[in-house]
């Protein structure tokens, strides 16, 4: 595991964007795994800025997002599809046929999960996966007590996650309680992983994920076993690392 500690949120975002830009320059038809949430907003902004400089593009890139809320349609401003359009896709030359986000309105959820996993495999697997981390150690929406061997599946969100994500909704009652998420196995199969974390609120869980035991209670702890993972942290998120 590599750990990069940056001076602040902006630098964390820039380091992450440069790593993705470098991936796309070296392999223009990369398969990217993408995350949503508050943390990567600055990263997407910087990635779009670098794209506008013209050294790489998204013409041949395929993307797979980590997760989507169940019950939210693409045009719902709280859906991760909408987030991705706003933060990245509408600013770059990606072919929307190459964009994959689990369908939150799928009637047959089990089938949607299977299909999603099949599409990732068919594309050749994920070259570079971007992750955030929940306060409870989740990656994707793989909550504590996770099955490490799980592929894309339906999850019931923890109270803590619902509480944390309620800041993006008008009220906590509006936060969906279920989602579709790539599994830990799907994530661990990515060839390269970067995880972004910012702020003192993430310091305890970052310490556990990096220095604690590998346990389903801290889903991100499994990343200690990945051969090519980089944590990009601002100094607050890194403040409890020894
Ligand atoms: C988002 C995702 C989640 C978030 C995590 C942190 O696609 O899979 O694991 O990365 O909940 O969210 P923020 O960045 O809002 O603290």
From TrEMBL:
Q: What does this protein do?
A: Catalyzes the reversible isomerization-deamination of glucosamine 6-phosphate (GlcN6P) to form fructose 6-phosphate (Fru6P) and ammonium ion.
Pfam families hit by this protein: Glucosamine_iso (PF01182)
Gene name of the record: nagB
CDD domains hit by this protein: GlcN6P_deaminase
**Which segments of the protein form a coiled coil according to its record?**
none
Q: Which organism is it from?
A: Fonticella tunisiensis
Q: Which reaction does it catalyse?
A: alpha-D-glucosamine 6-phosphate + H2O = beta-D-fructose 6-phosphate + NH4(+)
Keywords attached to this Swiss-Prot or TrEMBL record, sorted alphabetically, are: Carbohydrate metabolism, Hydrolase
Do you know which HAMAP family this protein is assigned to?
Answer: GlcN6P_deamin
The identity of this protein, by name, is Glucosamine-6-phosphate deaminase
Matching PANTHER family? GLUCOSAMINE-6-PHOSPHATE ISOMERASE
The answer to whether keyword Hydrolase applies is yes
Database matches in Gene3D superfamilies:
3.40.50.1360
């Amino acid at each position: 595991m590599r750990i990069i500690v940056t001076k602040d949120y902006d630098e964390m975002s820039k380091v992450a964007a440069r790593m993705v830009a470098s991936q796309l320059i070296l392999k223009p038809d990369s398969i990217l795994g993408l995350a949503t949430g508050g943390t990567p907003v600055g990263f997407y902004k910087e990635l779009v800025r670098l794209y506008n400089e013209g050294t790489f593009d998204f013409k041949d890139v395929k993307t797979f997002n980590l997760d989507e809320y169940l019950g939210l349609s693409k045009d719902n401003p709280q859906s991760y599809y909408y987030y991705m359009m706003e933060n990245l896709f509408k600013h770059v030359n990606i072919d929307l046929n190459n964009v994959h986000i689990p369908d939150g309105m799928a009637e047959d959820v089990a089938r949607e999960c299977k299909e999603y996993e099949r599409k990732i495999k068919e594309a050749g697997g994920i070259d570079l996966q971007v992750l955030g981390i929940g306060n409870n150690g989740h990656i994707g929406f793989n909550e504590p007590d996770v099955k490490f061997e799980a592929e894309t599946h339906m999850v019931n969100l923890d109270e803590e996650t619902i509480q944390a994500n309620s800041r993006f909704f008008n009220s906590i009652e509006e936060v969906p309680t279920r989602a579709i998420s790539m599994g830990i196995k799907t994530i661990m199969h990515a060839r390269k992983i970067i995880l972004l974390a910012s702020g003192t609120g993430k310091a305890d869980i970052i310490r556990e994920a990096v220095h604690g035991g590998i346990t389903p209670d801290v889903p991100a702890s499994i990343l200690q076993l990945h051969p090519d993972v980089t944590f990009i942290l601002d100094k607050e998120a890194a403040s409890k690392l020894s």
